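Follow-up to my earlier ticket, as requested here are the two runs.
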Amino acid sequence: MTRYEIYRAMALAFALSLILAPLFIRRLKKLNYGQRIREDGPRRHLKKAGTPTMGGLIFLASLLAMSIFFRPLSAPYTAMFLLVLGHGIIGFLDDFLKVYRRRSLGLKARSKLLGQLVLISFFSLFLLWTGHSTVVEIPFVKGDFDLGLLYYFLVFIIIMGTSHGVNLTDGIDGLAAGTAILSLVAYLFIALWRGMPELAFFCAVLTGSTFGFLIFNLHPARIFMGDVGSLSLGAGLAALAILTKTEFYLIVIGGVFVLETLSVIIQVLIFQTTGKRLFRMSPLHHHFELGGWSEWQVVMGFWAVAFIFALLALVDLGTFNIWI
């Protein structure tokens, strides 16, 4: 598969999402599948109640179509696609229960965890079956460490952490989708640099299809991605990090997702121990919103940070030769 074919796939996926999005929006509105808004969130978000959700179905449908008709035959591609699709199904069930029961909570946490455990277990078995290396590289210090069987615990942490990190970031119009696109583009370059055209194809298709969705998700959003989108995007990024052997580089490339997750953990720990809050509200993007930033300012600021993080990782890896 040539680079031209990969970039063409990105353009086709983008066009397909642009076609599908209005159809999905109309259908979701007719079904009254609107977003339920947290009552403890920023007050200006309350006006978003009723905005169609489950928008992640748009880029998953595009990814599915492109994978059926154009995907390269590859075991890693299939394993990664099934991991993403499985997380999309979990997210869809969560979103559906929210709109069906008309509340902001969907699947129980243990149900989500069990579903993800099953998916991660099958993915880990695939890695074991293919003899996937358990050696990991530490960014910026260039040190290699063989984790042995502990590597599969790392796989669990990466997939769980990234999927929920993207989910936490999905709280402002366009924030999670735009940040994920920047991370996916970074992995597109890494996959090309590693000589993995099938993974580059996956990155290109998911980038293009998510970009098409983003057009309708920008403020004021006409549709939200929902858990069906955030969990699947996070799982895709995690799988790319694992299969390209850049596991710890994901901490840098997905730095915004890491910061969002840490802000929640720190907020909870400090509140439980001192009764006080470090941030005005968590995740971190709400802290800036309550500090007077507009949604556009928060989104553009976080996108800028995500771009810098991705660039730092690419520079450290030395991927310059595949940028053109």
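Run two:
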Amino acid sequence: MKVTVYNCRDFDEKELFVKYGKEMGIELVLCPDAPDKDNAALARGGECIDIITSKMPEELLKVFADYGVKYITTRTIGYDHIDIKAAHALGMTVANAPYGPCGVADYTVMMILMTIRKMKRILERSNIQDYTLKGIQGRELKDLTVGVIGTGRIGRTVLKDLSGFGCRLLAHDLYENEEVKSMGVSYVTLEEMWKQADVITLHAPLTDDNYHMINGEAIEKMKDGVMIINTARGGLIDSQALIRGIENGKIGGAGLDVVENEFGLYYYDHKSDILDNRELSILRGFPNVTVSHHMAFYTDDCVDTVVRDSLLGCKYFTEGAENPWEVK
């Protein structure tokens, strides 16, 4: 069998692809670039392609389908970058490659702590040998209420991690989880979450229903000085509303590993480019906002897992075996 791998990184993924491809008897075509109409022909002669967060709209999916591709796996948990409906209409199967929850959960707790302790300002001052204290007085987690939106594997791990800090914990999810309740965590409506939480952290998948979940109306209902953490998907937050909330002081700080319209920006070197994302530039400029480039997932364990399981999913597909990662 043949698998064409796009966005293959030389410095961390390539060696693993070679290793697992050999173990599974898979012929690999490794391409460092994102999938597009020009390099789609690399997939000819195989049924499977392996991608990361590149946009896969209907017109590009049709190009791959015409080359005989029937299976697309993404080396990510999320798959909102793929037009699932169009893929299924073309007879293509889509799958993801979930990694363990600990990496993103660890990163989330780090972001929370950095935000409530104003670490961005502290580091900036230290870099210029400004050791004054005014303006960098922080808060302690034990005195705060933290709301977790989304109690899947990552959200539940965040709750477990935060339980040791002594903070009050709230949760919101369309489907309440018994494990979360057993921790003594209360499920609340979003309205209650906005009213009560000092820190709100997002761990929900992006859907049509929750797009811009945090918007101007929601922010108005939140506590003054609320801090918002997002290590999930940028589209959960209306960037313009977030900016207004920070500028008028309603939002006390934010830790953002994801932002809206990040496709095509992250994982590339743009240091000499003018970026077509005004909101990102504004958010990065605030002293109380920490922005990282969609890398909360990025650990040794994650890279190994997604490379292995993305290939394993291709193998299951070609063999007609049950595939636990298929997106229905």
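The only thing I checked on run two: The mean pLDDT is 97. Let me know what else you need.
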